[in-house]
Amino acid sequence: MMDFAVSIEGLSIDYVVGAGRFHAVSDVSLDVPTGRVVGIVGETGCGKSTLAQAIPRLLPEPPASIGSGRIIFRGMDLVKIPLWKMPALRGTGISMIFQEPLNSLNPAFRVYDQLVEAVRMRRRREAGERVAGPRESPPFDYSRRPVPGAVEVLSRPVAPGGATAAAMRKTSSRHPELREEVLDFLRLVRISDPETILDLYPHELSGGMRQRVMIAMALSEKPALLIADEPTSALDVTIQAQVLTLMKDLIEEVQTSILFISHDLGVIAEMADEVGVMYAGRLVEFGPVTELFDAPRHPYTKALLRASPTRYKSDGPLASIAGSVPNLAHPPDGCRFHPRCPIPRPVCRVDPPPPLRPTDGPASPHRSACHFAQEVESLP
Amino acid sequence: MRTFWNVLRANPLTLVGFVLVVLIALTALIITVAPGLLTPYRSDVATNAYAQAPSWAHPFGTDGGGLDIYSEVLYALPFDLAIAFAIAGVALVAGGALGLIAGFWDRPGSVGGAVSVLIMRITDIFLAFPSLILALAIAVSLGRGVLQLIVAVLLTWWPYYVRLARGETLAVKHLPYVTAARAAGVTEGRIVLRHVLRNILEPVIVYFTLDVGTVLVTLSTIGYVGLGVNYPITPEWGSMMSTYQNAGLITSDPWTVLGPGVAIFVTVLAFSLLGDGLRDVLDPRSRRVLAGASTGGPTSTSPAERKEEADEALGRSKDLPGAALGEGSPAP
Fold first, then answer.
1. Percent of chain B scored above 90 by pLDDT?
2. Phi, psi (rounded to 5 degrees) for B12
């Protein structure tokens, strides 16, 4: 019996816009085992961000509405919990890193004030303020710091962006204990000169710095589950590489459970232990990262890998998937991928495949939602 | 404080507005505490000079009853200022709070949505009337008096703040940092009070500063049409002008009307200038840029750095390594 940080069962989410009803997520079941990194990959509009935001119930309802399914977290069904109880579960329970590092920090507050809010909140909750659900011991040790030598070698002098001496004194004089803890988390995300950062406003930081601060903020609450919704998509490639390296190191260090959302196959391959592939609101394939990438068992995954520039570079033009993403207000009958599938059969047009079945023997962790999963291997 | 000063220096008009407002506030304070420092005359005792043109002894002249216009204008200052601030302030707090509530909890079909609709429809009803006419109508029905005057203007004043605060709240509440705060476990009440309120504050405060002048003009208008306070008993600029004009002095002794008129003009101008400049002070982005640009002071040293700061403030921030602040160190 595995221990799951969060367990999603048959989740369906619709957006009701005007007279239309868009089936953004349909019958998705997914488990994030404790201490593991589960990646979700898919095209824009496949429902991966909707899924991510639905877990801490951050979707605006309406227009979104959770039709059916359960989200089990700490033995509670988050779908059934009244919304006013959710803040107690967010942050220390489920925390999130967002796509837009430029706008995810409040422009009116200094970095210190934003971080200290998170640290204070966690302390209050740890001090025994009533929190919905049974308490758990923190799953990992955050006190480990990066090797000081390495940091000093790599650290670069940071030009103060305008923190005045008066402002410096202001933050250093109050709550030295909180301040130390905030600094610890900034050091945890490899910010070499955290004292300077404390007194800056978000707009004075570069994109990569902002995302580091966001990560520090999410980690400072010591969440049981961290959801990273395209954390590097808005950054350019060099910064993306730095942030990914950082996150990979942090995954080793803090050993939290992570749900990692991305449209980038390379990023997912790098970060995740297990991968789910989403198409048109459905989870079409799920499996351990190497198996899924080496031997995909769904025609969509195969096509996606072929369309990825890094893995299958050849002299010819880059392969693309014929057709376009279906309109989710009227998804195709049967298998949602059949209009674009290279091996469509009559049955695919009528019968929606059952959600995820093991592909290689009943105990296989690699599962696919294709009627003809065995034939995918022979595809070009 | 130093940054505040630098921002003021960066824009000469703001500086003028700021200096004027400080002078006006000081004058009001002195008149309230020790009027003898600024004028030898009292507002309720006539001098023995009647209907005199401006002179060294009486800079704004005197009226037919022997009252020194300069002293009257000064004595009216604290009163006018206090009423203008009271009206704009109550409208700011009440209207702003209603607008914040109506903007933040506006989901249709919920209790909050119903409350929001109720607030906005009542606001619309008040906004449908021309505010000056409505204020005059209320002033007529309530009768003359200070409290009546305040109530009349206030009743027409709060809806603008509801509109403004609601609009700003609607814009701010969908920004990613509000969602990020929610994801971090911040409760809705705290999101409103800390994250949303702080970010709508800037336009609202700027509007408030400009508005003090507008309230003053409205007060004077009500006084001018003869519905304000009783002039010779309570000095008030609008009522002063009204009283002297009705006595037919505008042609024979124009200085009696000119004195309070200039006072209104200068005060309104001062608050308008300050309000415009305040926007720069309240926004952390423009604050840093202006502070740096005017002195080159402790924050930035080279022109290149200043440019970089300005660029960043303009939203042209770069994600290149080494931009603005560097990237810290790459992970070992």
1. 18
2. -60, -35
Residues facing residue A287 across a β-bridge: A275
User: What pLDDT, on a 0 to 100 scale, did the predictor assign at position B165?
Assistant: 93
Tokens of residue B189, six digits? 């009440």
Interface predicted TM-score (ipTM) of this complex, two decimals: 0.77
Q: Is this model's pTM higher than 0.95 or not?
A: no
Residue of chain A whose alpha carbon sits nearest to that of B330: A242
CB A12 within 8 A of CB A68: yes
Spatial separation of the C-alpha atoms in residues B72 and B46, rounded to whole Å: 11
Q: What is the tens place of the pLDDT at every residue in B142-151?
A: 888 888 888 8
Judge contact between B59 and B71, C-beta under 8 A: no
Helices (H), chain A: 48-54, 86-89, 111-126, 148-154, 165-173, 176-188, 194-198, 207-220, 237-254, 265-271, 289-294, 299-306, 346-350
Please give, one letter per residue, the 3-state secondary structure of A15-75.
EEECCEEEEEEEEEEEEEECCCEEEEECCCCCCHHHHHHHCCCCCCCCCEEEEEEEEEECC
Q: Is B298 in contact with A165 (Cβ distance < 8 A)?
A: yes
DSSP B236: -
Q: Are B254 and B241 a contacting pair, CB within 8 Å?
A: no
Of all residues in chain A, the percent with pLDDT exceeding 70 is 82
Q: Which domains does chain B have, with CATH numbers?
A: 2-44+75-282 (1.10.3720.10), 284-316 (no CATH)
State whether B182 and A156 contact (CB < 8 Å).
no
Q: CA B329 to CA B80: how far, in whole Å?
A: 59
Of the candidates A56, A150, A151, which has its C-beta nearest B183's C-beta? A56
Contacts of A131 (CB under 8 A, 6+ apart): A88, A89, A92, A93, A125
Q: Sheet containing A4-17: give its strands across.
A: A20-33, A4-17, A64-73, A76-77
Question: Cβ A58–B182 below 8 Å, yes or no?
Answer: yes
Taking CB atoms and an 8 Å cutoff, what residues of chain A touch B195? 106
- Which of A56-70, A131-145, B198-212, B238-252 tops mean pLDDT? B198-212
Looking at per-residue pLDDT, the higher value among B21 and B235 belongs to: B21
**Of the ranges A121-125, A251-255, B34-38, B134-138, the best mean pLDDT one:** B134-138
Which residues from B are below 8 Å from A146, CB to CB?
A: 331-332
* Residues 126 through 155 of chain A touching chain B, CB cutoff 8 Å: 146-147, 150-151, 153-155
Give the pairing of strands A76-77 and A274-279.
unpaired
Name the residue type at position B115: V
Burial class (CB in 10 A: 0-12, 13-18, 19+), B66: middle
Task: Tell me whether residue A19 is exposed, middle or buried, using C-beta atoms within 10 angstroms of its C-beta: 0 to 12, 13 to 18, 19 or more.
Answer: exposed
> What does the alpha-carbon distance between residue B329 and residue B321 come to, in Å, rounded to a whole number?
10
Helices (H), chain B: 2-10, 12-33, 69-104, 111-128, 131-142, 146-173, 176-183, 188-190, 197-224, 237-246, 249-252, 255-282, 284-295, 303-313
Distance from CA of B174 to the nearest CA of A (A): 10
Q: Is residue A254 pLDDT above 80, yes or no?
A: no
Q: Which tokens belong to A209?
A: 């710095």
* Whether A225 contacts A183, CB under 8 Å: no
Q: Name residue B113's amino acid.
A: G
Cα A67 to chain centroid, rounded: 22
Q: How far apart are CA A329 and CA A327, in angstroms?
A: 5
Query: At B176, is the secondary structure helix, strand, or coil?
Result: helix
d(CA B38, CA B78): 14
Give the per-residue SS3 of A342-356: CCCCHHHHHCCCCCC
